[in-house]
């Protein structure tokens, strides 16, 4: 190298270093560092930063050899490529060439000053072919190239790479959707959610800016529609909040902490951090829902071979009356009329939640357009489906989100608007209030077998913080709102008051247990008196306390707290000396006359009486036959064989006649023919119907529809059913033929059933059996019966 060439190299390097210093100073002035704070709004600031860096890179690239000569170009990807450059972002740059031999020297001159500039740099040097090859195997690179934008050099090289990268993405994206979904789920597990979280990660969280990039990439491939207006608005808010957060922090930060919320809110023209948190939660929900819909739409429909022919398109499989599983989504049956069925919306939601399947977007749109708001009071069928939905556990969360995003949840619960996206005031809470209520209900679903009224537990848990967001004691306001909602649902007067009391006193047990001496008689008496000596309310509050604590945040429900609450509840239960399950009411005149006819003729009889309420498929089935062992199991088996779901049942004896009365509804379609029921019941009683074989086949048809529920529980009560009787109470998740199997297990153990009361609420049963046995007081006998029942349930 000549002396003149060396001098030229030194002069060029000095010029680059001067440019580097200038850009650092210019960046600081834009951000307001040093003297005076910048007044540039967030969108203008991002544009100014992009312009600054692009000008700097253009000059610097030309000095480094990336000039107008053919064969090499500098590309921007990432935030600079999209011109969404937030403060303190890395510059994502690609030096692309067509095989030039001097590219290494160009790269050294290009990258070296950047490393010393204080600006983060993510860079690579590749030919067009190399870049495309990396994109075939690296998802991040493939998506990054979709934003490629020319900065300096040969624009034809940039155009060739950008065009080829987008074409390659379009043709191969379906094979990459599973990887895209898996990478997103891994990121969400690390970063959490933007919606509902107290400290959202605006970039990496579910519903954040990374998810927007996914939706845009799938839209570019024409697998989904371009983002709707609400998603576009969410995009702008997330970008602005991230911009102001980084400007405030003076460094790269994407997690918005509550202590930074007021300043960021002020910079965005909002009154305080609570307004900002609510807006960000809504934005996160819009983006999160959009990416969920995009993933479902983008997944390729799998075909399968039937008799050697490839059958394309997803299958339709019946799940419930008017509801099918279409591929991996829950959808409406083809001939269903949503406007005529007030329970259909909730039935769709319940089936989807219990099976953890998403509801098809078209189904949600159709329901939003035509599903009626249930009239007050709700019909029993709608109420049953609501309880089934609330008892679905983890599957509830996504379904409520889908309903809420399409306006359907507000149609069911207009009171929800005050808590939607409402940030908590208590630092212990990790969720917004609405999400906390749903999370608590999901936890309560795992506790339904610990209470005698699982329906009231689920409704009360859903509503326990419904009074928040108003300028008054949320427990008192919530109690009034809960009374309003429970009345609209059609609950009885006493149940309405129980739900209201749950909401009013939902903090009583945890506050008392952790702040008072639970062994003090005065403490116990005060709690018992506050609850009016009601043991049912006590056990409901105990379960609600656990569900509420678990949904608040990690570490809130501890072993110590659980022990204190359990001790308080046990002491209060002793003080209350509560009532136990009652036996059935006597037969009315009509039932007594029918029983006497059966006694005289000796012929079994069964009567099917549909309820007269419009829009409901509920019915009462009364089966009678000469009393003998196995009568209850056979009657229940016939109902299961006809796909009838038992919501309640009562069993009596009237002289020599056994009477079983069931309140049922069809799982699919319409009620069965009464003549067929009578013929099957008669054959079952006489033993000519292979009931076990037919039910086994029926259960196989339902395999995979019912989900695992909370563990079953057996309770024993003495002195409640008359002389010589003991009451066994079973609490378990419902499934097809459950009552048949339990009754059969009792009968096989040689135990007589004096009477029975069966109640199915949603997906949970609470069944009481008065058992007759000379050895019923023997502990070993009870253990034997309990094992038999639990084995039948399992």
Automatic annotation (TrEMBL):
Region (Uridylyltransferase): 1-318
UniProt GO BP: regulation of nitrogen utilization
Keywords: Hydrolase, Magnesium, Multifunctional enzyme, Nucleotidyltransferase, Repeat, Transferase
Record CDD domains: ACT_UUR-ACR-like, HDc, NT_GlnE_GlnD_like
Swiss-Prot/TrEMBL cofactor(s): Mg(2+)
Gene Ontology MF: a single term: phosphoric diester hydrolase activity
Record-annotated ACT domain positions: 620-696, 727-794
Key word Ribosomal protein present: no
Known EC number: 2.7.7.59, 3.1.4.-
Domain HD: 433-534
Activity regulation description: Uridylyltransferase (UTase) activity is inhibited by glutamine, while glutamine activates uridylyl-removing (UR) activity.
Reaction(s) the record says it catalyses: [protein-PII]-L-tyrosine + UTP = [protein-PII]-uridylyl-L-tyrosine + diphosphate; [protein-PII]-uridylyl-L-tyrosine + H2O = [protein-PII]-L-tyrosine + UMP + H(+)
Entry-linked InterPro entries: ACT-like_dom_sf, ACT_dom, HD/PDEase_dom, HD_domain, NT_sf, PII_UdlTrfase/GS_AdlTrfase, UTase/UR
Gene3D superfamilies in alphabetical order: Beta Polymerase, domain 2, cca-adding enzyme, domain 2
Function: Modifies, by uridylylation and deuridylylation, the PII regulatory proteins (GlnB and homologs), in response to the nitrogen status of the cell that GlnD senses through the glutamine level. Under low glutamine levels, catalyzes the conversion of the PII proteins and UTP to PII-UMP and PPi, while under higher glutamine levels, GlnD hydrolyzes PII-UMP to PII and UMP (deuridylylation). Thus, controls uridylylation state and activity of the PII proteins, and plays an important role in the regulation of nitrogen metabolism.
Family from the record: Belongs to the GlnD family.
Free-text comment on this protein's domains from its UniProt entry: Has four distinct domains: an N-terminal nucleotidyltransferase (NT) domain responsible for UTase activity, a central HD domain that encodes UR activity, and two C-terminal ACT domains that seem to have a role in glutamine sensing.
Record protein name field: Bifunctional uridylyltransferase/uridylyl-removing enzyme
Organism annotation: Herbihabitans rhizosphaerae
Gene from which this protein is expressed: glnD
């Amino acid at each position: 190298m000549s002396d003149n060439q060396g001098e030229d190299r030194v002069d060029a390097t000095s010029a680059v270093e001067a440019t580097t210093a200038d850009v650092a100073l210019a960046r600081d002035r834009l951000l307001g560092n040093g003297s005076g704070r910048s007044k540039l709004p967030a969108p203008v600031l991002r544009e100014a930063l992009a312009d600054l860096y692009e000008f700097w890179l253009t000059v610097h690239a030309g000095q480094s050899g990336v000039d107008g000569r053919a064969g090499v170009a500098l590309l921007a990807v990432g935030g600079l490529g999209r011109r969404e450059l937030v403060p303190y972002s890395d510059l994502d740059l690609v030096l692309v060439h067509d095989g030039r031999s001097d590219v290494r020297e160009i790269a050294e001159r290009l990258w070296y000053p950047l490393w010393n500039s204080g600006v983060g740099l993510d860079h690579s040097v590749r030919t067009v072919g190399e870049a495309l090859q990396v994109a075939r195997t690296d998802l991040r690179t493939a998506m990054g190239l979709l934003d490629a934008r020319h900065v300096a050099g040969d624009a034809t090289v940039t155009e060739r790479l950008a065009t080829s990268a987008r074409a390659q993405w379009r043709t191969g994206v379906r094979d990459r959707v599973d990887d895209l979904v898996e990478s997103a789920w891994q990121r969400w597990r690390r970063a959490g959610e933007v919606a509902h979280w107290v400290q959202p990660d605006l970039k990496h969280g579910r519903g954040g800016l990374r998810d927007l990039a996914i939706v845009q990439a799938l839209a570019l491939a024409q697998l989904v529609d371009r983002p709707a207006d609400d998603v576009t608005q969410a995009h702008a808010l997330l970008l602005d909040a991230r911009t102001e957060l980084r400007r405030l922090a003076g460094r790269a930060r994407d997690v918005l902490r509550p202590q930074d919320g007021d300043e960021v809110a002020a910079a965005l023209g909002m009154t305080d951090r609570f307004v900002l948190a609510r807006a960000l939660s809504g934005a996160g929900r819009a983006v999160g829902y959009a990416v969920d819909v995009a993933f479902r739409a983008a997944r390729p429909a799998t075909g399968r071979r039937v008799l050697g022919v490839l059958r394309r398109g997803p299958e339709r499989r019946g799940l419930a009356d008017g509801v099918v599983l279409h591929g991996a989504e829950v959808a409406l049956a083809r001939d269903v009329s949503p406007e005529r069925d007030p329970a259909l919306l909730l039935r769709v939601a319940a089936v989807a939640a219990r099976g953890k399947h998403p509801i098809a977007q078209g189904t949600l749109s159709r329901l939003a357009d035509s599903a009626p708001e249930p009239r007050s009071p709700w019909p029993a069928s709608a109420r049953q489906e609501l309880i089934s939905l609330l008892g679905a556990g983890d599957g509830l969360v996504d379904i409520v989100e889908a309903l809420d995003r399409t306006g359907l949840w507000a149609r069911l619960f207009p009171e929800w608007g005050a808590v939607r996206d409402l940030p908590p005031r208590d630092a212990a809470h990790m969720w917004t209030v609405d999400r906390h209520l749903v999370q608590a209900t999901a936890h309560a679903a795992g506790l339904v077998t610990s209470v005698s009224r699982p329906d009231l537990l689920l409704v009360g848990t859903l509503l326990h913080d419904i009074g928040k967001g108003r300028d008054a004691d949320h427990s008192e306001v919530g109690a009034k709102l809960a009374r309003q909602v429970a009345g609209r649902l059609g609950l009885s007067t006493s149940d309405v008051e129980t739900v209201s009391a749950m909401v009013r006193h939902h903090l009583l047990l945890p506050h008392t247990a952790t702040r008072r001496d639970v062994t003090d008689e005065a403490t116990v008496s005060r709690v018992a008196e506050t609850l009016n000596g009601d043991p049912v309310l006590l056990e409901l509050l105990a379960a609600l306390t656990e569900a509420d604590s678990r949904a608040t945040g990690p570490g809130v429900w501890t072993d110590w707290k659980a022990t204190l609450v359990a001790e308080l509840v046990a002491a209060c239960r002793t003080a209350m000396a509560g009532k136990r399950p009652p036996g059935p009411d006597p037969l009315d005149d009509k039932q007594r006359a029918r029983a006497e006819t059966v006694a005289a003729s000796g012929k079994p009889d069964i009567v099917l009486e549909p309820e007269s309420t419009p829009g409901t498929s509920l019915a009462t089935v009364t089966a009678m036959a000469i009393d003998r062992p196995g009568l209850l199991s056979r009657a229940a088996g016939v109902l299961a064989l006809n796909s009838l779901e038992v919501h309640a049942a009562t069993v009596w004896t009237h002289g020599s006649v056994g009477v079983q009365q069931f309140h049922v509804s069809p799982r699919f379609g319409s009620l069965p023919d009464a003549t067929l029921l009578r013929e099957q019941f008669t054959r079952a009683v006489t033993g000519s119907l292979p009931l076990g074989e037919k039910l086994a086949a029926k259960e196989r048809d339902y395999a995979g529809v019912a989900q695992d529920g909370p563990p079953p529980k057996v309770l024993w009560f003495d002195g409640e059913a008359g002389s010589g009787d003991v009451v066994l109470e079973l609490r378990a998740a419902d499934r097809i033929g459950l009552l048949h199997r339990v009754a059969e297990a009792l009968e096989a153990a040689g135990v007589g059933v004096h009477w029975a009361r069966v109640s199915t609420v949603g997906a949970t049963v609470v069944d009481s059996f008065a058992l007759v046995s000379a050895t019923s007081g023997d502990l070993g006998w009870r253990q034997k019966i309990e094992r038999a029942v639990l084995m039948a349930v399992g």
